[in-house]
Specification:
Helix content: under 10%
Number of domains: 1
Shape: elongated
Largest sheet: 10 strands, mixed
Strand content: over 45%
Radius of gyration: 17 Å
Structural class: mainly beta
Length: 187
């Protein structure tokens, strides 16, 4: 099985400022966020030809309950590695395990961040399963888990363009996908 060593950062932005507090656990019981959405960007872009991709996911988490945290902004980064992905990797799944680290900065402002070692698996049906153990900060020792559902967003061409490139081709790579989740759990 191919492995992709990478860094995954899940970052919650406090207003316009970005902070990364590190220390002992301040919230032991866990939390669940009921809604998440945003964009996933692929570089150089998925096509029918397998390639190593740089993946960046940005979005928001809302409806967080079970702890003192409320909402969050989300950033996930999976740098290029040895895993070779295609457009079909999203819809049918891929055996490659994407691994890295995660950082979560919780709202409200002044909340302590969490750091985790995570893995991401393309489980098919346009879903990416992310899980990992928090090793530093809020929720130390607990596991974060989420399933991100992706919706491909191919480049569109003006009507009447002669011979527009097919979706997921070398000339029309998948460079962006909307993501959503109905559950981001730390337990």
């Amino acid at each position: 099985m191919k492995r992709l060593a990478g860094f995954v950062a899940i970052v919650v932005v406090t207003g316009a400022a970005l902070s990364f507090g590190v220390g002992s656990a301040v919230a032991a019981g866990g939390t669940t966020c009921t809604t998440g959405s945003g964009q996933a960007k692929f570089s150089p872009g998925l096509s029918t030809t397998a390639s190593a991709e740089n993946i960046v996911v940005k979005g928001t988490l809302t409806g967080c309950t079970g702890g003192t945290f409320t909402d969050a902004a989300l950033l996930v980064h999976l740098p290029r590695g040895t895993a070779l992905l295609t457009c079909d990797s999203l819809s049918t799944g891929a055996p490659d395990l994407l691994s890295g680290r995660a950082v979560v900065q919780w709202l409200p402002a002044g909340s302590q961040s969490s750091m985790a070692t995570v893995t991401a698996t393309l489980s098919g049906a346009n879903t990416v399963h992310v899980t990992g153990v928090i090793t530093v900060g809020s929720f130390t020792g607990l596991t974060l888990t989420t399933d991100l559902t992706l919706t491909a967003q191919f480049k569109t061409f003006p009507p009447g363009l002669k011979n527009p490139p097919a979706a997921c081709s070398q000339k029309n790579r998948l460079k962006s996908a909307a993501f959503s989740t109905s559950s981001f759990v730390v337990a």
